[in-house]
Amino acid sequence: MAIAVSNSPGNNPTGNPFVDSLIWGSSWSGGTITYSFDPGYYGDSAFSLAMKSAVRAAFDIIETIIPLNFSEQGFLTGGGAFINDVDITYALVSQNYLGGPGSVGFHQVPGDSSLASDGNQAIFGLFGYDSIIYNPEGLQKGGAGFSVILHEILHGLGLAHPHDTGGGSSIFPGVFSSTGDYGYQGQNQGIFTIMSYNEGYAQAIPVTTYTYGDVATPMALDIAALQAIYGTASNATGNNVYSLPGYNGAGTHWSSIWDTGGNDTIYAGGVQRNTVINLNDADLSGSDAGGSPIYAAGIQGGFTIANSVVIENAVGGTMSDTIIGNEVGNWLDGRSGNDIIYSGSGNDQIIGGDGNDTLSGDNGSDIVSGGNGVDNIIAYAGDGNDNINGGGGYDWLRFTGNTSINLDLSNKGQQNTGYGFDTIRSIEHVSGSDANDQITGSKVANILNGRKGSDTLDGQEGDDTLNGGRHSDILIGGRGRDTINGGNGADIIEGGKGLDFMNGGNGPDTFVFTTMRDSTNSTIYSDVIGDFRSGEDKIDLSAIDASEILPGDDAFIFRGQGPITTSQEGEISYLKIDAAGTANDRTYVFIDSDADKAREMVIELTGLHDLTANDFIL
Fold it and tell me: Which residue ranges traverse the bilayer (predicted)?
């Protein structure tokens, strides 16, 4: 037998308001606690096999959490002397005896005087046998009967309610009512403490039946309180897989994981609902005090992770999952669906799988694989040396923070991006940081966004889209049909070879042409400047030798709206096309370099412009 000890800890034995609210103030001295089932000697009925099994299962669970043993003893009387020498006696009584309909359980706490008057020193646990919750289906894990039995047993070990001041306990912050009141941080519900009267994940997925959806283990705050009283037990030290329930039905329940070793996994493979998997343990403070619920959408069951427990891996289901890593090296696999995956500070492996995923590496040297689909991969300053593979589809790499990046998408080896020595493959699109970035594209069609800072974006080959952002940028399209938007600032925009569409945006912009092959001689197929502002923007032709006839590097002559002549000097003229009644007005700039009256290059300006030589750098 164990000895009941009155600790009288006051209102804050640990200093943690959540843990202290669950500590009654008396406990057992340790060792082995004995219990027996009343055959009707004290109560109104003998225990059914199902009820006995539920009590035994509850004790088995508790033994995995704290270093106590529980031993069932036979219930014996005889010879006129009481010899039922156990620590706890369990008896069945009516709900009326317990206080009326809906009163389904009661348990004395360690140190209470026994309810018996015949010399029995055991404390009592009583259950309302005539309640429907003690039907066999309610006594399964997830059923209300099993949850009540476990709740009452924890009273018998010295736990209190979060909503009252039983023993020397305090009350959860902001809780003023026993039901429907979750407190300031939302912790007064079964998913965080089984001692709450708000069943299951009451705030998000309320329990709707007595047969499933309830709590089936001490939850994270209960575990913390029990271990503050009794210490910790080693449990589940191997490589364990915790499978997330994907349906509502018998056996669906909430549990808190107490796991003290191994390489472990939360697994949602085959679950055909969106899931949330957060590998962070309960930190015992704020809104995460009792941990983060791990569950599939609409399913009345799942997990939390108890304080100090480390779960290393997460595998998502077939739909869109949200997966959050922790501080150790995680394997995070989204599988199918449009997943959002955030790793923690460890050296993680992140796999998006099929679908359009958002993958965030955070700190640590991570391996990030997008898989199929259009993926978003997010990089942070100082996040380690990462290996990033976008996989199939057109994938994004997005940088955050104020560190400049230097990234070449055509470089398949390790490169110093400014965010680490990273290896980047199969990434098509990049969004820069808040600093001054240099981003170079590849042979495929890239989208390069500079965002903040004075950036240099070079599309290289492919039909690229370059967006400068807030400051003065250098934007080079390269080969291909490129779309270039300067944004704010005084931008330098070079379309390069191919038919390009260019917008300078706000600020005095310069549109650079370096060869006569940067556009064509056709008014139908030529480079287009969409927002040219005469007197503010400039067209820079200074890199082109204006005359193919004269020696040296010659400058162009501006002819205005006059025709091109046979002068051996290179000439520029323009023609306005007023498409009355439409939005198709345009101005063509004609460039000639060989004295044959025929233009060699055309640049189209959207709208009607009265150009002068000052609009050009000749």
Answer: none
More confident residue, 550 or 295: 295
Quick check: 159 pLDDT over 80? yes
pLDDT-derived band at 594, boundaries 50, 70, 90 = confident
DSSP code of residue 518: S
d(CA 471, CA 22): 56
| Residue 388 backbone dihedrals phi, psi, to 5 degrees | -115, 125
Q: What is the Cβ-side half-sphere exposure of residue 372, based on CA atoms within 13 angstroms? A: 5
User: How is the chain split into domains, by residue range?
Assistant: 4-225
Percent of the chain with pLDDT over 70: 96
Q: Are 482 and 464 in contact (CB under 8 A)?
A: yes
The residue length of the chain stands at: 618
Name the token pair of 299. Answer: 């399913």
**Mean predicted confidence (pLDDT) in 356-371:** 86
Taking a C-beta distance cutoff of 8 angstroms, is the pair 144, 210 a contact? Answer: yes
The least confident of 361-365, 397-401, 535-539, 556-560 is 361-365
Burial class (CB in 10 A: 0-12, 13-18, 19+), 196: buried
Q: How far is CA 297 from CA 201, 317, 480, in A?
A: 12, 11, 45
CATH architecture observed for domain 4-225 = 3-Layer(aba) Sandwich (3.40)
Beta strands in 286-405 (DSSP E): 294-296, 302-305, 313-315, 322-324, 331-333, 340-342, 349-351, 358-360, 367-369, 376-380, 387-389, 396-400
Paired with 342 in beta bridges are 324, 360
